[in-house]
Specification:
Length: 191
């Protein structure tokens, strides 16, 4: 009887364990996960559960934040990898040391880097900034200066034209006056 009871209990357990497994195989509600940017509208069918994640509009064309930053060595840029290989051991090429082949090449590179740093933060940059400010100041008044110069030139032209007109009027008035007749050497004349 013990065996029969044990078999019955085992079959009940198997039957009870099978019921949830069968329920899990049946499909439940459909779920749709959507990412919406800004004020985009989201349309979901009625028989679907929609889970909407709203993101800022500025994130629309960016790489997702969880994928942006990684310390994985596979994500290191090749330029950084090569740069790290150049300076391994601090001797040889690009090392600026007397040991190793082509050690002097690093000294030249250091001088070039120092020159660029001095150029960016030095007095030359300050002079460039001052020149740019002076140009901007000059260009801000160039329209007013041009208008004043144009007015001065037009005034000179008006004065010149008035003087020429006065001279013409004087010539016309002189021609309109009767001309004195010249006397002949023999004493005869128009009288």
């Amino acid at each position: 009887m013990k065996i029969f009871a044990t078999a019955a209990i085992a079959s009940l357990i198997a039957l009870g364990a099978g019921v949830p497994a069968a329920a899990q195989d049946e499909a439940g509600d459909k779920v749709s996960m959507v990412i919406a940017y800004g004020d985009d509208e989201v349309a979901c069918p009625e028989d679907t559960i929609c889970v909407v994640a709203r993101m800022d509009e500025s994130e629309r064309f960016r790489i997702p934040e969880n994928l942006r930053y990684s310390n994985d060595p596979a994500n290191t840029a090749w330029a950084k990898r090569v740069e790290s290989f150049e300076y391994v051991g601090k001797f040889g090429a690009m090392s600026c040391s007397p040991s190793g082949a082509a050690g002097f090449t690093g000294c030249t590179q250091k001088m070039i880097d120092a020159a660029y740093e001095a150029r960016e933060g030095g007095s030359a940059a300050r002079f460039g900034q001052l020149i740019a400010e002076a140009r901007a100041e000059r260009l801000s008044t160039i329209d007013e200066d041009a208008a004043a110069e144009q007015e001065r030139v037009e005034q000179i032209e008006r004065e010149y034209m008035e003087r020429i007109e006065r001279e013409r009027e004087a010539e016309v008035a002189a021609e309109a006056l009767p001309q004195p007749t010249a006397k002949q050497p023999d004493g005869s004349g128009d009288e």
